[in-house]
Amino acid sequence: MCASLLSERRREAISTLKPRRKRRLPRARLVTLPALPAGVEGAVLSRVDLGKVSRAALAFVPAGRGALAEQAREISAGLKAILAHEPGPMTVTVQTVFLRDAADQAECEAVFRAHYGDQMPVTNFVIQPPCCGAALALEAWAVAGDAVRIERLGPHTLAVTCDGVRWVYCGGISPAPALEGAYAQTLDALARTTEALRLAGCSFRQAVRTWFYLEGITEPQAGAWRYQELNRARSDFYRDIPFADQRPQAHYPASTGIGMSAANLLVSCVALETRRADVRLLSLENPKQTPAYAYHRRFSGASPKFSRAMALLLGGYLTTWISGTASIVGSESAYPGDIEKQTQQTIDNIERLISRDNFAAHGVAGAGAGLEDVAKIRVYLKRPEHLAQCRAICTRRFGSIPAIYAVADVCRPELLVEIEGIAFSRCSPPEASGPGI
Question: 51 lies in a domain?
Fold first, then answer.
């Protein structure tokens, strides 16, 4: 009797409820943070599951503070243990070594060549001291998959092919030592990058991400800053390149232009080629920022030619390369002298840039990412004493993802921090649009 009455009351109560809006299930994340093997300190790993291929990003700062060779060997041993701990064989394809002292490069390179043997990845040695005081820090990318094919095409070029997509990595490229001036150095380094890409059978028009590490980036030269001279050379070099974009407006690769303390200039890039039809490249701009290529001449005689981000929609996966981002609103620097507010504003800019709302505003529904989809970051700090404040904010906003914190001049004297990264998320597959890129 009681049970029957209770059932009737439940049915009556349910019948009077208003229909509820269907709850959206949380998206399955592509980026995870696996546990590291016991005994490895100072490293953070993120793994990205992209179906037929798996990628891993690693940031590693040695726990010890001995001689350079001891710290490099600590990283080498830890890297070996981490990759052996992964569920399947992984190959390191590209790495960036951040060095405190340019004089240590030859010794550091010898340690890594002994580690990799004939499997040496494309390597950048960037003279940017780790903020924590270590002699070096390592950022590495590794790849795994049954159908992955790797081609080593010289000391500066490596290609990875899987599932109808070919990624080309070029790095460690510097201009001829005799050249003087950022303009001539940049043109020469870009020409050498073009030759490195040709070894893989592709061209600069297929570049989706570039990095320019420039010594003395805010120092005066030829009546301007060295960074402005780099921008003038990049503008001249890009003028006749038909970049692989499917939109009618301006398009340039995502990019970072940042200072380093020695070695004049270092250039690296990522290029992409595929014949798959379910692919789309999209250059992204931030609605709260003036596009860099549209800056007023008072910021640079030739405006910086890069997109705020470059997105690749491939099948049901979205990869978003986030350019070097700083505390800029519109075209003006925000919060001069305040590291905490600059860091917050920089991350706000990234969050807005990669959001689903911004993708929709760019004409692509069903795509976008959040800060939780970022697989790794690089944080460039002008002053090492700001490390604790900046790192606390980054960890709170991004989580405990792989992160490198390096000392570097930012392209404007009043800016204290710059952050770049890469995000991976799911998306609605783009409609077939042609023979690929």
Answer: yes
Question: 12 in a domain, yes or no?
Answer: no
Average pLDDT over residues 201-205: 95
Phi-psi group of 51: left, alpha or beta (phi > 0 → left; psi -120 to 50 → alpha; rest → beta): left
Q: How do residues 283-296 score in pLDDT, each as one tens digit? A: 999 999 999 888 87
Nearest C-alpha neighbor of 129 from the set 260, 266, 217? 260
Helix pair angle (387-398, 339-353), 10° resolution: 30
Rounded Cα distance, 255 and 268, in Å:
10
Q: What is the pTM of this model?
A: 0.92
Gap between the Cα atoms of 27 and 57, Å rounded: 21
Instruction: Give the residue, 5 or 261, on which the prediction is more confident.
Output: 261
**Whether the predicted pLDDT of 36 surpasses 70:** yes
**Burial of 85 per CB tally in 10 Å (0-12, 13-18, 19+):** middle
CB 209 within 8 A of CB 171: no
CA distance 424 to 373: 6
pLDDT of 15: 34
Q: In this structure, is residue 231 part of a structural domain?
A: yes
| Full residue range of the structural domain in which residue 393 is found | 29-426
Residue 45 belongs to some domain of the structure = yes
- Read off the pLDDT of residues 292-321 as tens digits, 9 standing for 90 and up: 888 877 766 788 999 999 999 998 999 999
- Tell me how many helices (H) and strands (E) the chain has: 8, 22
